[in-house]
Design brief:
By secondary structure, this protein is of the alpha+beta class. It contains eight helices and ten strands. Strands 1, 2, 3, 4, 5, 6, 7, 8, 9 and 10 form a ten-stranded mixed β-sheet that branches. The longest helix is centred in the C-terminal third of the chain and has 17 residues. The model has no long low-confidence stretch (mean pLDDT 88).
Length: 259
Amino acid sequence: EGTASEHLEWMHKQAVSLTSEERRNEFRPYGKRNGCSYYIHDELTSKANGYGFFKIEATLCLEPRDMVARSMDMEGLATIDKTVVMMKILKQYHLDEEKESNNEASSSSSVVFPVCAAVYWCNDPGFPFHYRDGVDITGYTEEADNSGTIWQVSVSAKGKNFVSMPGGAISATDCYWAYKLEPTTKKIITTDNNEAVEVPVTKVTLICQTVLNGYIPIFLSNYYLCSVLIDYLSTTEKDVEKKKNSGEHQELLKQINLL
């Protein structure tokens, strides 16, 4: 229960704490792959009956807003992620409108989420397992300190009347999901034409924990989630560049008020 803003504010608060340097030692190194380092939080994993609480770190040549646009591009995600059966925005709105409709003061929180969406998702974990689906509230907020850091957060909010996709889907829960996107020093790269160009660089930190439920062995569930997320991160730069060249990326930035 609660408003979309309350769900996102809760997730943002958890993400700020869990990605802080003070809590870094709570995570145990879990592996490296495709330029990504990933870690597991043993205590929070245990509290979820073995479903992994992961942190993944990577450095990507793009701006923080580029990653936000990609994360909120539901049609695009469905085409690049082979595990996605369906991703659909059920409702997208400005949280100022939501607060007004709930008679909330717009200054009730120091955290502002310019754009928010309720999203239905359905993924295929692979044969012989049933699809997993759910509804998340997702949005982003920029740091008030003008550092350029952006947080993109999501959390499950299926509601009491949620019914999984007919035909055998099983409801899953995104307990934690948050990107911390920090701009860092730009770097010089050499193009195919031997020209030196300066490109933006973002330090990406993702924390996530998804409970898939059903009869998937937990070790397979954890492997599946890590594999999918690392593949997603490692293809981000090429996908963003492709959409920039086609003009699609600029349209996505406009839709979420980041251009």
